[in-house]
Each structure stands twice: as C-alpha cells, then as structure tokens.
C-alpha cells in the first residue's frame, strides 16, 4: 500500500484507474480499445459530452460560459490568455505569487504590456499579497489560486472590476468557487481532475473577440468553442479519465463534500506540524494551502532519515520542491484521510525516536 | 473479433494495449499507476528517454536533429512550423494535396507570405502534383506525405533546395525515409505511433533561431528542445503507449520489415478493388496510399448493404470521408494482413450475392 503525496501528476481514485485500465482493452463492450476508436464515434462523443456536463454541474458553471478540454497544459494557457484577451496596445495585470505566476506574466509580455500589481517574491512567496489595487484600465487581472511549490492558496478571491483570469491547476474542484466572478479559468488536469495531457478551460464567451490580433486556429478560444473541443483530434484517453474522475467526485457528493474533507485533511496535518517539535510550517497561517502542505525541519540534518522512514512506510512524493526545501505533502481530492494519518503516524514515530 | 480499419485514432497492437492497461493499475511494479507518478520520476524519465532513442534508431535520425514529444496534434504544428521558421517578411512554399495541407498553409498566412507551388484541388485531390518548381527564396517547402482523406501518398519525396517540412501524421514509421532530406517532420501519434494526445516532432537544429519574431515558450521549438520535451508536464500516458508501440515495431524487425508488410497489404487490397466488378479505386495509380485505401462502388445504391455486411463480419471503420464518399480502409502498421483478407472475403461474398 502506497500513500501518494506527489505534487502532480498526482493521485487518482482507485476505481477510476480500474475502469480506465479496462477501457484500454475493451471500451464499453465495443470490442475495441478506447485508444483506437475514432474521436468522432458516438461512443467517444458521449464521453466528451458527459465530461463537459459534469464540469458544468459540479462547478456550477453559469450560462454564457464555454467549457473546453484542450492540450498543452497550463503553460500553453499562459500564452493563450493574452493571445486572446490582451490587445497589443493594452496592458494586463498580474498578481505574482510564485514561479508559475511569474511564467504566466512573462508569456503575456509577448502580447502587450504587463503590470505586476503585487508580489511576494521578496519572501520567496510564503504569503499572498492582499494590499493592492486592480487597475480598471487593464484588459484582465491574472491570479494563481494555489501555489503548488510554496503551499499558499488564495482563501478569498479578489473582487475585480475587470475580467478575472485564474490558473486553478492545483486546486480546481477542491472547493466551491463562484464561476460567475471569473472571465477565464484554466487548469492542467494532472492534480485533481485526471491524468497529464488535458487542460480544462472555462471561459466567459462575451470577453472573447475583443482583440484585433489574428489568432491561429489552435490558439483561438473561439475556434475551439465552435469545434466543441474537437477542432482537431482531442486527447481522448485523458478526457475519458477526467470524465471518470468527475463522475467519482459527483458520486462522493460533489465539490461541497470534498471541500469539507480537504479542510479536515489539511487541518489535521497542519496541527501535527505545529505540535510536533521536529517540524515547522513554511507559509503565513492565513494563506496556507489545503492542497499542498509545505513544512521544514528545525534540524535539517534529520531530513534524510525522515524521508527514509517515510519511504519504508510507503509514503511517497513528500520531498519538497528544491526552491523551498523540506517537505511538501500534496493532499489532493483523491488522497484519503487515512493516508494523512499514515503520514502523521510516521512524523510522531520519528519524533519519538529523535527526542 | 473486430477488424479495425478506422482512419484514426487507429488500431494499436494487442500486446501494446495489454501492457498499457496494466500500467494504468501498477506501473513497472512501483505500486502506483503510470497516471499518478511524477513526470520527473526516474521511472517516467526512462520511458521518455527510451521513446526518443527508439525514434532515432527506427527512423535513422542523424546527428544534428532533435526529437520532441509535444501536445496539440499536427494542427498545432501547422502554426508552429511558420511561427519558428517563417520570417514575417519572408515566404513559405506549400504543396496543396488535400484539406490538411490546406489547413497547414492557412496557418502559415498568419506569419508571412505563402506560395502554393501546386495543387490538385481541381480534381478533389485524387493525385499528387509533380510538375512544379520549389522557389529557392522561400523559407521552407511544406508537404503532406500521406493524405488520409483521399488515399494519396507521395511515393517519392521531392529534392528541395530549401528546408523540407513534412506532415507525416498518417504514414510515419510505415516506410523507410531519409530523415537527412528533411528540415522538420511532424506527426500526430494516433495513426501509426500511439494514441491521440501526443505529437512527434523531428527537427534539424540548424534551421532554428533564424526568425527574429519573439515566440512564447510553449510554441518555441528551441525551448522545447532545451527542456527535453519536459518544459512543462508532458502527456505521460500517450508517450508511454507510443514508446510501447515503437518497441513492438522494433521487435517486428523495424521500419524495413513493416514497409514490406504494408506494401503487401496494400497490393492485395488494391488488386481486389481492381478485380471486383462492384468496386473501383479513387486515386491515380502511381499515387495510391499504402495506408488509406479509398474506393467507391460502381452502383452507389449498394453502399449501405455492403456496409451492413461489413458490420456483421466485424469490419469497422471503412466508411469513406464525406468529402470523398464510398469507402476507406485504413491499413496502418498494426493492422494484420488477416484483417485485409477478412475485408477481401466480404467484398467477394458481396459481389457473389449481387451478380
């Protein structure tokens, strides 16, 4: 039994993996693998339709928004957001809360002017800046809802006078969000929604078509909307596994239910980090992520023996990102609370033997 | 038993599907699914490294070329080729041999001037134009090696004084190619190489870096080369299945062996189409594809009953594309010759009962 705390591609529900494995051999009794059927077949079209419907239902997507399943990861969206939304004579506003936010704003500079409204770079991104003004004359305001590397998360979204664009790659479907407050939401699937290879995009239709730049077909949200995510062959398997994961989430009771589970998992783990004399948290209390729990050791020499003990106990993926050090326990939707307790047990056992 | 003649996503070898199915549950004895391990893990890095090596070995990729596994399909490469290779004051030359070639050249127009050196559009693309001059002052010459919809294929590649760019989506790894004759080769995986969701790019390093346009990271071949196809999270599963398919091809004896099999499969099928009084071929004899065999009926009223009989005999995916009509039997690498004989049997049975 492995406890998968990896930061992503991350843990998926066991029953999803079982169904996905079966579909690779025989998809829905067709006698063919899901990997070798046409994306234009009625069987695959039903998968895509259900995936779109589940996103709308689970996330409460209102009328006037389109749901897309695209390729290229959030990093491609870093470019597509300004490609589609930022006039070449305009500017875009960015909140810099980590390396990924920084990569996003760098891509925007290819298309127009960028204003960084606030940054926590000087503290190595251990908190979310809150004291800033969103420029009303910018084309959009870009935020990163959860910062995987540092373990910070926007617990409240800013009220924005301009379209709010949000990279939700590492916390989508982990908590209730009012989609109507956003102009564009995008997320690589490989944390909470499915495997690597597909990216969810939720876009408010009325914010599109306002730049006069010519946009190649594959980079044009309007073309992708018209094509129903099938302007060209979509990543069928990754969409199918995402659909299964969304089905699993619905069967669990939806986003509200998983949000409570995530709060509990985060709370018991942060409590242990606070309580355990060997460990300490990294981030500002009010900005701590419910998805990626970062912590370090008071005595860095104990890091290696702790990782060794974790490995022996089947706890994988908790080594921290090199830019933060220490540890990072990613506790995505599919991670059961029993795995969190398994980690806490190891932390306590290790503290006992290192008094 | 199904005989899968689908045009793509197309048939994959049974043993590949079996291994892929197992890896979705437990990848190489890690106790974790391939879908939930880090792309930076040594286990996945070994997969990507092997996939790159197999491409180089099986396709004879010389020194000075980079092999990439990207996302977005060939349609994304339609834009990335000119993005990276066509100066805004320059022009690119295109051979128009079908709808996909046409889509490719339309994307190039976003970036510079386009010269169509020849086209078979007036005959609905039933042949490959051969009498043309490649302009020596163009940045590159773009061709489509196999035209899936129409069933035509370049049996010989043109000698080009400028970098030759080729969309090989529907015949890559089906025949020996002298890679040194090309500047850029790209191919969506979902015909001969793997599942939908990954695109192979083989690019000659020295043709890059010659446009002064600024290119967003994800669209920049040089950035992807520096990142070793891992500038961001790659489509891990699609790469894994492609690697397994390339391993299968190597075990069979490589491209030379499969090329002979493909010639045989195509020959027996075209022979039957020529011989059978109910059917006739669509394309010019010398340009007939060894991958997608198109044919129509002398009497179009028999089309539906023939498709019905095919369906009863487990023959799937042979309905022709709407722009050609009739039938299209895609006989990709993984399709066994026994399936071709199964189709021929049905053609003969149908002809017997419709004398």
CATH architecture of the largest domain in chain A: 3-Layer(aba) Sandwich
Question: Which regions of chain A contain 5 or more consecutive residues with pLDDT less than 50?
Answer: none
Mind telling me the CATH class of the largest domain in chain A?
Alpha Beta
Greatest chain-chain interface? Answer: A-B, 64 and 64 residues
End-to-end Cα distance of chain A, whole Å, is 29 Å
Query: Helix/strand-derived class of chain A?
Result: alpha/beta
User: Based on CA inertia axes, which overall geometry of chain A fits?
Assistant: globular
Biggest sheet record of chain A? 7 strands, mixed
Q: What's the total count of β strands of chain A?
A: 14
Counting copies of identical and different chains, the oligomeric state is homodimer
Subunit structure (chains A, B): Homodimer.
Catalytic activity (chains A, B): O-phospho-L-serine + 2-oxoglutarate = 3-phosphooxypyruvate + L-glutamate; 4-(phosphooxy)-L-threonine + 2-oxoglutarate = (R)-3-hydroxy-2-oxo-4-phosphooxybutanoate + L-glutamate
Pfam family, one (chains A, B): Aminotran_5
Domain Aminotransferase class V (chains A, B): 4-335
Write up this protein.
Two copies of one chain form a homodimer. With 355 residues, chain A is an alpha/beta fold. Helix content of chain A is 35%, strand content 17%. In chain A, strands 2-10-9-8-5-3-4 form a seven-stranded mixed β-sheet, sandwiched between helices. A three-stranded antiparallel β-sheet of chain A has the order 11-12-14, covered by helices on one side. A two-stranded parallel ribbon of chain A has the order 1-13. The first copy, chain A, is globular and about 65 Å long. Chain A starts with a strand and ends with a helix. The model of chain A has no long low-confidence stretch (mean pLDDT 97).
């Amino acid at each position: 039994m492995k406890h998968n705390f990896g930061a992503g591609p991350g843990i998926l529900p066991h029953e999803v993996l079982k169904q996905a494995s079966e579909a690779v051999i025989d998809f829905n009794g067709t006698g063919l693998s899901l990997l070798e059927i046409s994306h234009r077949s009625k069987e695959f079209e039903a998968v895509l339709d259900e995936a779109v419907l589940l996103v709308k239902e689970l996330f409460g997507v209102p009328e006037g928004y389109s749901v897309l399943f695209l390729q290229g990861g959030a990093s491609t969206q870093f470019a597509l957001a300004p490609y589609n939304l930022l006039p070449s004579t305009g500017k875009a506003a960015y909140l810099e809360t980590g390396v990924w936010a920084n990569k996003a704003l760098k891509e925007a500079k290819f298309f127009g002017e960028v204003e960084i409204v606030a940054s926590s770079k000087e503290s190595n991104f251990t908190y979310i800046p809150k004291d800033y003004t969103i420029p009303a004359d910018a084309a959009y305001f870009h935020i990163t809802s959860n910062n995987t590397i540092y373990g910070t998360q926007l617990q409240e979204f800013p009220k924005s006078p301009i379209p709010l664009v949000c990279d939700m790659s590492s916390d989508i479907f982990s908590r209730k969000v009012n989609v109507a407050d956003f102009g564009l939401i995008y997320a690589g699937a490989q944390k909470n929604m499915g495997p690597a290879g597909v990216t969810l995009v939720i876009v408010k239709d009325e914010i599109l078509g306002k730049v006069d730049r010519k946009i190649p077909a594959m980079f044009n949200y309007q073309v992708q909307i018209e094509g129903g995510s099938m302007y060209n062959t979509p990543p069928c398997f990754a969409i199918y596994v995402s659909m299964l994961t969304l089905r699993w989430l619905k069967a669990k009771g939806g986003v509200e239910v998983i949000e409570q589970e995530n709060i509990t998992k985060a709370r018991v783990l942060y409590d242990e980090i606070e309580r355990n004399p060997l460990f300490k948290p990294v981030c500002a209390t009010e900005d701590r992520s419910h998805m990626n729990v970062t912590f370090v050791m008071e005595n860095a020499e104990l890091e290696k023996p702790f990782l060794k003990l974790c490995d022996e106990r089947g706890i994988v993926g908790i080594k921290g990102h090199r830019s933060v050090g220490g540890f990072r326990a990613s506790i995505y939707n599919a991670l059961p609370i029993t795995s969190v307790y398994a980690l806490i047990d190891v932390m306590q056992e290790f503290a006992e033997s290192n008094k």
